[in-house]
Structures are given as structure tokens and as C-alpha cells.
Amino acid sequence: MNTNSRSKSIIRTSRICIAVNFVLAAFKLVLGFLSNSVAIITDGINNVTDVLSSVITIIGTRLSEKEPDRKHPFGYGRIEYLSSLVIGAFILFAGIESFKNSIDKIINPVKGDYSTLTLLILAVAVVVKIGIGLYTKKQGNELDSEALIASGKDAVNDSIASTAVFIAGIIYILSGQSIEAYVGAIISLVIIKTGFDTLKESSDIILGESTDTALASKIRDSILSFPEIEGVYDIVIHSYGKEKMLGSAHIEISDRYKVSWVDNLQRAIIRKVKENTGVDMLGISVYAINTHSKEVMDARECVKKAVEEIKDAREMHGFYIDSVDKTMNFDVIQEFGIRSKEELKEELIKKVQEIYPEYAVMIDVDYDFTE
Known about the structure:
Layout: H1 3-35, H2 38-64, H3 79-107, H4 116-143, H5 146-175, H6 180-207, H7 213-224, E1 231-239, E2 245-254, H8 259-277, E3 280-289, H9 294-308, E4 313-322, E5 327-334, H10 341-355, E6 360-367
Parallel strand pairs: 2-3, 5-6
Antiparallel strand pairs: 1-2, 4-5
């Protein structure tokens, strides 16, 4: 799906959500004030935040379509993620305010007045909310829209909240016991949790998450389809919106190839990855493999075994020895959260130089960005 079609679909879905939630909010708020029910009013306010969420989604989608300029050369696609962040903030604010209102009603109770008509309208609202929630979430997943997914999750949670209000009404009619203020507090906590979850998910994307494993695998397979390539490592993808993905990777090839041949290979890789995944590969870095010396190949296996003996060193690649300058280069992937890169690097250099003291050992330590 191209950018224009995707944006139109997101906006169309958001408009449907606005219309449905506006009607639901109006009915619930009127019912809430007529029946003096804090739970129904809280539920209605929740629908108002859904309307605002959809409006923000539309605005964010429109702004994300702006063409790149000198100030933002990669475009405005990340505004979608900011939209999701704002939606999370709205949901959180509404939940906190509703919770404060519910607690006030628990301390200073006001008796509600449920009728059969009120319960009937609430039942219809539950069914409608479930439908619009599942539809919005489905569209969000299909269009890969964080804002729609957030709105869909919120709507599904709303349907659970509306069901709780409905049950509270039945309990009141059958027993005369009013539990609606407590139900309102529970609904508010559900809203608060949804707000926190939306903020966290949006913040994680903006801060930078691990590269999508499935996408990284497609990129790796595309690159490895060239028979001259011995290995693919350090795949990193930066998202500037769903339609603007920039990537980089390291490849291992024999040191016997000329620069002109490597240049042609890199261009072919860029074209193939774009065709297969839609990712623009901005950087293809090359690791040269020694292929002319059995001694060097044996050294590679020896160093590999030494690296594997260190607990938080997961993988070695990019191994190359310059016999003239007496330098040994390789990269190591490190486990997250055990110790600093410098500590691991120091231990690796010490261990390898005990085996090959005549070489200057140069190591790059990095994390696996696809986890």
C-alpha cells in the first residue's frame, strides 16, 4: 500500500471512530446526568477522550504527509509516533480525573437512578464499543498505525468498562445497592493503565527499539542471496515513519575482490533489499576475509574459541589479519546489561594477546540490535 492510500485509510477509520464515539458520549453523558450516575458519566467522558484521540490521529496523519525539507530531510513520518504519545497523555489525564471524581463520590455518596431504558442503551453501547474497538485495532494492525492500534485497545477496554457499568445498574435494580462509585473507580484505573501502556509503547518507539527480527531476517536473506557474501551482521534499521525505513549492515566478503567489483555489489544489494523489504540501505560496510593463508584461517578459529569461552561475548565476526602491519581486527556481539563494552573489550584483548602477543589486537564490541 502506498503512502497516500495508507493515510486515506487511517483518516477514514478515524472519522468512523469520531462519529461513533461522539454519539456514544452524548447518550452516556445525558443518561449519566439524568440518572445521577457517576459511573455512566465517567464512561461517557471516556468516549469523549476517544473522539479527541481520533482527531489527533487525523491531524498527525496529515502532518506526517509533509514532504522532506532542509530542516527535516527524512520527512515528518515520526509525527505518527508523537500522535500516539499525545493520545496516551489524553487517556491518562482522563483516567486520573475520573478516578478523583469517583473517590469523591465514594466519600460523599450520591444515589443513582437506573431505569430499564438506561440499561438497554448501555447494553447497545457495549456491543457498539466492542465492534468499533475490534475494527479500529484490526485497521491499525493492517495499516501498521500505532495511533489506531492505541485507539483500538482503548475502545476494547472501554467496552469492558461499559459492561461493568451495565452490571452495576442491574445490581442496583435487583438489590437497591449502589456500587457505581466503586465501579467508576475501577473503570478509571483501567483507563489509567491504558494511558500508561500507550505512553510506554509510543515512548519506546521514539527512543528507539530493537530492530524488527522478521524484517532483519528478510534483509539478511536478501543480502545472502548473493553467493559471494560470506556473512551479514550488525543490521540496524531507523524508522522515520512507516513509509520511511533506513538501514545499514556489515557484510563479509573475500579480500581478493577489487574495489570496483565491491562497489557494483553494494549497489546491487541496495536495489534488492529495497525491492524485497522497502528499506533504503544507506550503508553497506565491508569486512574483508583472509582467503590466501591457512595460517590466518587457523588463527581465526583459535580466536573464535577463545571468544566463546567468555560468558557475555556471544559472537565473533569481521575477523581480519594484516600480516605486514601485524594487526588483528574483529567484532564481538555482547549480551545486554552484564558489564560495559570497555570492560569486555579489555578482557578480550588481554586473552587474545596471550595467544598472539606479536599482534596489535583491535576489537569493536557492540550489541545485537535485532533482539
